[in-house]
Amino acid sequence: MYFFRPLTVLPPLPPALSELAVIAKNFWWSWEPGGDALFRWLDEELWENLHHNPVALLLTLPQEKLFEAAQNPEYLEIYEEYRRRFAEYFRRPTWFSETYPDKKEHVIAYLSAEFGIHECLPIYSGGLGLLAGDHLKAASDLGLPLVAVGLLYKSGYFNQEINPEGWQEARYPLLNFHKMPISPVTDKEGRELEVQVELSSPTLCWTVSLRIWEAQVGRVRLYLLDADTTRNRAEDRQLTGSLYGGDQKMRLQQEILLGIGGVRALRALGIAPAVWHINEGHAAFSVLERMRELVSQGLDMETAREVVRASTIFTTHTPVPAGHDVFQADLLSCYFDKYCPESGLNWESFLGPAYDQDRNGFNMTLLAHKHAAYTNAVSQLHGETTKKILAPVYPGIPAPEIPVNTVTNGVHLETWLAPEWAERFTRLAGEGWRTPQNNPEAWEKIAQMSAAEIWGVRKELKVRMIDRCRARLLQQRQRYYASPTQQEEIETCLPPDVLTVVFARRFTAYKRANLLLRDKERLASLVNDPEQPVQFIFAGKAHPADRAGQEIIKQIYDLSQQEPFRGKIAFIEEYDIETARCLVQGADVWLNAPRRPLEACGTSGQKAVLNGTVHLSILDGWWPEAYNGENGFAIGRGEVFDDEELQDYYDSLALYEVLEDVV
């Protein structure tokens, strides 16, 4: 039998631009201030059409354009500047190398189901993935000896389109990995490196092969596992088809590949982590694989369990009990029938540590937590909520003593800060504001920026945001052949001189994007105020299986098409990293309205305030820790009611009050 696969060949670059391909394959350029100029200059329209993918750009660009650029003094100056910065980034000492020079071999493995690095690598769905991506970038800047492992999804999450009736439609593109800033890992003979994961039931045993790809995120290596290889059965090739797709059976198989396959991939690469960090419960099966290894080396099961626990960290992100993956025992037996005996586990000892009595199943969060020496929630309030969720596991133990710590999420500064701010920060404080970022002297210098200059930047960013939103709205209407009049009205919608409130995040019921819609009369008064009008931009995806989230999108879309809201409320489709950057940088006010205490952290607000945007939020997630009464606005006072309808009614009143009387 002959196997065929696509072969992508990067055309030879002019000698004067020889390092361009190396920079294109490292996501460093995506957060280096102004780094996209290196590629945007070559063909701005093509750059936009390719979703800012530098590898696809170099493959698509006519070769004569590259040779023209190699002789253009303006471009050569840009190229030489970023080539110098790239080399300097890897050459200079880091915080970790100077603080812990004897720990450089103590590798940290970071396992996550999704990573939001950049829009041209769409293997993320929302906050969990963006946090993971920012984590890798920060680790790179600090010089942490970290490697990461995830899955490489053939269709990513999904592309969102809003049809003329206002319903979300999910599109699943087939990604060409050979045209992306990733590379297949090969062995010493040049063969693509693969690992195998065995799945077994009482009647069937089979093997899934996983090809390993590498993404370079500055100094950090991200290894991605891909089941779409000809060695696998057709149905197994779909196991890495899409993020969070399919049913419980598909979800379980994906998590087996991530956890067990992730450990085997690092072993195949010759990497021996000192610490294993599980980012959410999806990768929890990694602890079983590590225990199996130790048992095969002669340790008894309980000793192996303690060894694994001593080197494991677990971060939980989900404050909703139903959000934690739970699998039924009969489903688990379809894939672990032979794995348990090989691991020295009987069925009861396999199920025991992760058994969730309330939900009568195998809880992945419990599996990770019970095998971690350190578990952390992602905000102080989330820590309290997590302890309540875990209280049944610790009967008789006071909540403060339940072993859950708190590390509040942050964001990667350079990724989300607008280039206009970065340029001014550097002019005022040199490079001192970048590393370390807690340099008081640098920020005191930045604080001397004049109000007029700050306002000028804010206006510039807002105009860019409005232009991008109008372009997306026009593209949407052109797709379903809207009338010329409907297309022309886009030119005047969302005027830049009107106070603009943005709500952009995952659409699900508890995040309450529709809280504003509870009183349409008051909302109409806000958007049509003759002296101080307000306009609203919404963006976000609902999971394809989340009908309630999709109905909220439709509610907002329908309202945006009605008078007196037309042109003053807009829903922007296909919320991705590119759109998020544009919105957090250009919004006047960033709105967050979760049902407290269900927001684990909510870092989009942090990204917004970095850019001078005012934060308006329920006191949930990170906001209770940051809000001081002068640095933004709070909705309500942190009240929590048992009745959700009463909670929503009260919070909607508080939201209207602060919008009408304060903001």
From TrEMBL:
Sorted keywords for this record are: Allosteric enzyme, Pyridoxal phosphate
The record's listing under Pfam families reads: DUF3417, Phosphorylase
Gene that this polypeptide is encoded by = glgP
Q: Which GO terms describe its molecular function?
A: glycogen phosphorylase activity; pyridoxal phosphate binding
* Keyword 4Fe-4S applies: no
Q: For this chain's UniProt record, which GO biological process terms are given? A: carbohydrate metabolic process
Name assigned to this protein = Alpha-glucan family phosphorylase
Q: Show the InterPro entries listed in the entry.
A: Agluc_phsphrylas, Glyco_trans_35, Glycogen/Maltodextrin_Phosph, Glycogen_phosphorylase_DUF3417
Reaction catalysed by this enzyme: [(1->4)-alpha-D-glucosyl](n) + phosphate = [(1->4)-alpha-D-glucosyl](n-1) + alpha-D-glucose 1-phosphate
